[in-house]
Amino acid sequence: MNLETRTPLAETLGVLETAALLREVTAGLIAVDDFDAALSALVRITRDAVGGVAWCGFTALRAGEPAGVAASDPRLSGLDDLRYGPDTPAMEAIRRREMVGAEELGVEPRWPDWTPRARELGVRGVISAPVDIDDQVIGAVNLYAAEPDALTPAHQLTAMLLAEHAGLLLAAVRDREKRAALIGQQDTALLNDGVIGQAVGVIMTQRGCPAEDALDVLRSAASSLSIPLREVAERLVSTVSRPRDN
């Protein structure tokens, strides 16, 4: 098979592989509402789905919080954190807001502190692509190869598309996480409210369910009856408090 025949086939397979990766990443993150869990899923799916990639990591910088790291292999997680300062592929990609990489770390002069450790761990090539998530979080997805020259221009395109797609999905995860936290705060306030808390206690006793489920039952009743939650709670408490006729 000559080069002219192989190249279009390789490009087609690369496109199909990237499409499959983005589909798997979407399926894996679409319902997740925990950011760290989403990062763990992202690196695992990417490692398993992209040929030539032996490991995958993610470096996340969050305003007012320590840097976050996810790694498909815990043994390599240190390569994605900040222990090497700005002299890492991930931090360079984040700082420059563009993809960086090296096909062969054995001849790579950049990142003088990071590269020797990476090579000790078996890393021979790297691609880091910046990921814009929201106004509070930025990051980089890091693809690692165990063989020199295993990462090709096709991998660079995959990394670029993955970074763009993952940024959108992770932003949605952040939104769901924030909404869940807000709902949790609202639920806590409701449970601490006198009559609503009492009504929840009644439902918990009757159904043997936790407070969150009891509050959902109360909300469902309010929605079905089209009356305020407090009024439903007052009716329930009044009903169970009413003396029984002998």
From TrEMBL:
Keywords: Transcription, Transcription regulation. PROSITE patterns: ANTAR. The keyword Transcription regulation applies. GO terms for molecular function: RNA binding. Transmembrane segments: none annotated. InterPro entries: ANTAR, GAF, GAF-like_dom_sf, GAF_ANTAR, WH-like_DNA-bd_sf. The keyword Transcription applies. Gene3D superfamilies: 3.30.450.40, Winged helix-like DNA-binding domain superfamily/Winged helix DNA-binding domain. SMART domains: ANTAR. Residues 176-237 form the ANTAR domain. This is Transcriptional regulator. The lineage of its organism: Bacteria, Bacillati, Actinomycetota, Actinomycetes, Micromonosporales.
